Amino acid sequence: MPGRPLIHLLLAALALTVAAPAAAAQDLTLTGVMTHADHEHYREVPFTVPAGTTRLTVDFAYTGKDQKSVIDLGVRDPQRFRGWSGGNKRSFTISDADATPSYLPGPIPAGTWKLVLGVPNLRAGVEARYTAHVTFQHDTSFAGFSATPIKPGPGWYRGDLHMHTAHSDGSCVSHRGVRVPCPVFKTLETAHAHGLDFISVTDHNDTAQNDALRELAPYFDDLLLIPGRELTTFWGHANIWGPTAPMDFQLGSPRATTLAAIQTQVEKAGGLISINHPGQPSGETCMGCGWTAKDTDFSRIQAIQAVNGGALRLPGGAESVISGIPFWEARLNAGLRITAVGGSDNHDAGIDQATHTGIGFPTTVVHASELSQPAILAGIRAGHVFVDITGSREKTLEVSATSGGRTVEMGDALAAPAGAPIKVSVRVTHAAGASLSLAGDGPKPKLADATLNGDDATRSFEVTGDGRRHWLRVDVRGPDGKLWLLGNPIYLNAPEATARGR
User: Alpha-carbon distance 123 to 68, whole Å?
Assistant: First the structure.
């Protein structure tokens, strides 16, 4: 076509606007116009990615006089082609550990990238104006795979915070009956079928599963997927929830000389750390299990896995010889405020209803402002949590305490001067025949009527403050005395500054 290169030069010069950043961290807006001259041609729109970018996100839109006009979308980095979504997506994100399907995860090199625009259909006399908003993230924090809450509004949300897939040592039986590395979607299917609201896939020292979660999140759109990994060292295991970026795990090596160095990485990324199965001794069945990491600063630990799914297979269940509850309570007695959670530690994407083990056994139940990653993590950090060891879909445990006109819930601190009355209120649902039990490091009243009658039972009792720091917890036990619901404490006279790694 004669004159076509000149048309392109004029259009590029007159119609394309690139808002260059004043500083490396600023975002960009690319705008331009396509005409029939671009029909069945490609345009590469350059933009500069600043050094230190950890995530690149593009939101693309175009308008035209003709609804049949189409502009396809892709992108190149300075070295290679990073993806092509054509006309099926109007936004994409790329990071080191995950990317929108159609795009390749990996490091974000600084330099000139190119937005690749293809025009399969743009008829004569029609203009299509486009806008591309390009945002650059420069830290390792991550708000979640869903831009909006899975469910709005406060509630008790049920989840499993510890499970493994093909990206570490998870395996399951294939269609031909062969045991194979288990794909991520099988874990999500089972969790969804069990009625969970959220899960975290925590493969050992790995983040590759997050790319699979990015792809699966739109399909499992009623299940919140929280990125996680199990920090697996020679001196203990710990879950990290929230960040997707790779982190050093080689504790004791030059890459991570101390646990404090790892904790700093997690804190900068806005994540939470939870010590896993601390009561399980290290051995051939679980290398490095049991927490023995030297110089652990527990004030920077947000949670402890008090109940691991492996314990439920042993005599005593949640309070078996490998229970994490004594380890957790020892930290509470030391004046720390650390949230008790549970996790199935599932490795086969299954559930064994006969033994009540597998995904969702136990279930961690979080009181959160909404079903979103920030809200669930905030609820865990605050201690607004109980552990449903029975893995039910409906049991609830609500505990509040009131003194001096202030009411708090599990995980909160309450001022209680010496002689001040403290009223504790408990509501338990779907646990008829069970009974309440109390735990703590201070005076505990004898409950006059601990048995719960009916599927919606309330009880209250009163204690008197002695002006000193204490923790007080309410649990629910089945008719056989086994622990059904493990509560988190209410902290009396505990300073807020001691709360969970703040």
Answer: 9
481: left (phi over 0), alpha (psi -120 to 50) or beta: left
Sequence letter at residue 177: G
Distance CA 85, CA 90 (A): 8
pLDDT tens per residue, range 293-322: 999 999 999 999 999 999 999 999 999 999
CA proximity to 76, closest of 38, 51, 42: 42
Q: Is the dihedral of CA 482, 485, 486, 489 positive or negative?
A: negative
349-353: long-range pairs with CB below 8 Å, 24+: 349/165, 349/170, 349/172, 349/182, 349/186, 349/187, 349/189, 349/190, 350/172, 350/190, 351/190, 351/194
- Residue 220 pLDDT greater than 60, yes or no: yes
Per-residue pLDDT band at 122 (split at 50, 70, 90):
confident
Residues 6+ apart with CB under 8 A from 114: 44, 45, 46, 47, 75, 76
Angle at 408 between CA 407 and CA 410, to 5 degrees: 150
Residues in a beta bridge with 388: 363, 485
The CA distance from 296 to 261, in Å, is 11
Phi and psi torsions of 491, nearest 5°: -105, 120
Q: What count of other Cβ atoms lies within 10 Å of the Cβ of residue 233?
A: 20
**Integer Cα distance of 229 and 341 in angstroms:** 16
| Rg of the chain in Å (alpha carbons) | 27
Rounded percentage of the chain residues whose pLDDT exceeds 90 = 85
DSSP calls for 353-421: TTTTEETTBSEEEEEESSBSHHHHHHHHHHT-EEEETT--SS-EEEEEEEETTEEEETT-EE---TT-E
Under 8 Å between Cβ of 168 and 184: no
Among 35-39, 147-151, 497-501, where is mean pLDDT lowest? 497-501
Q: How far apart are CA 417 and CA 303, in angstroms?
A: 28
Question: What is the enclosing helix (H) or strand (E) of 262?
Answer: helix 259-268
**Cβ atoms of residues 52 and 113 within 8 Å:** no
User: Which amino acid does the sequence have at 376?
Assistant: I
- Cβ atoms 238, 275 nearer than 8 A: yes
Q: Could you read off the pLDDT of 153-177 as tens digits, one per residue?
A: 999 999 999 999 999 999 999 999 9
Whether 467 contacts 498, CB under 8 Å: no
At 66, the pLDDT band (50, 70, 90 cuts) reads low
Residue 389 contacts residue 485 (beta carbons within 8 Å): yes
**CA-to-CA separations, 132 to 44, 94, 358, in angstroms, rounded:** 13, 15, 45
